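Figure S4 source data
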Amino acid sequence: MTNHHTRRNFLRTASALALSAATVLAEDSGAAQTGIERVGGPALKVSLNAYSFSKLLNDFNKHREGGGISLMQLLDFCAKNNFDGIDPTGYFFPGYPEVPTDEYVNNFKRRAFELGLGISGTGVRNNFTTSDKSVRDASVQHIKQWVEVASRLGAPVLRVFADTQRKNMTWHDVAKDRTREQVQQWIVDDLSQCAEQGKKFGVIIGVQNHGDFLQTGEQLLSLIKAVGSPWCGAIVDTGYFKTKDPYLDMAKVAPFAVNWQIKQSAFGQESEVRTDLKKLIQIIRASNYRGYLPIETLSPKGKVYDPFTVVPAFHKELRAAIQEVS
């Protein structure tokens, strides 16, 4: 009697688990098509994208005059200015594009933990629009390597691009005579491989709308949906939608956001028009986003830029908007 009862309970439990697993798989499959299902209402934390200190971080790594600042020192800056987290962009790790040592990663994680800082993500460079398949393949391998780095860091998202990342060259230039549809298929194929690696190591591939291939929210969503993986989502760069009303594009992509890049202007680096932060926060809250809002301040051409003053000021503005918009 006891054995029969135990067996019956086991079968009932196994059936329930199978149903649960099937539900999860179905939800995972649909997530890339309908947006991320979030519960509990919006919950926002503020992070600093290390690119805000790009010149100083490069000065340090390249031993330039003046010394610059290290990623370790940037952790201290984040803590002193009450950030919730940091996005330590891969470019600024010693030896990039090579992966950092375990010792460096572990020391960085330990110091971030001591300072109460989360690691909101990281990012790398890649080129998926070139007609040179060997370059695209090398980019896939590079991303796969840094997926492992992100996993070691505890970074949930690895930021990648869908554009050339080459100055003064468009995707048309590097793709030669290929159509947009052909180039997108290259990117989809490459991102799919990266997403599989992300699934293996528990790191989401975040595609940022930075450059000229992804100029609209519709284009970014078209790419994400074509990949069709819950391990590939959108990083909403608030300063790079090339449309008349970029806020409409932000709202369209927000349900698919796995991370953000909050810029000082929604109309590009050189624009004097400041981002309407209250409007932006309304959009983000409406999507029930729960997670980090990394800020990234940029240095306009021909103007003095001091991140030690610009970053805290913009951080204060964003915090105020979050508080005011309920």
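Figure S5 source data
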Amino acid sequence: MMEPHIPVLILSLAGIIAISIVSWVMLTAWRDWLALRKMALTVGDDSGMTSPAARIELAALRERVRKLEAIASGVDLLP
């Protein structure tokens, strides 16, 4: 027969793992958002004065942030 403290230990470990995963996702999203803001400040507005490579990188960062926000809110994205 199982000891009474074993299920509590399992639930506690599962909770710690879940909190760790959520924290990691939020930290990654925060870093990407900061990178996006930094790039937007250094690139300037999209009035044609930016290089195509910078615009492509900015679009890739925006897409990554959008996907991370969707993951954080629990929405499934279509490929």
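DSSP finds two helices and no strands in the chain. Residues 49-73 form one domain.
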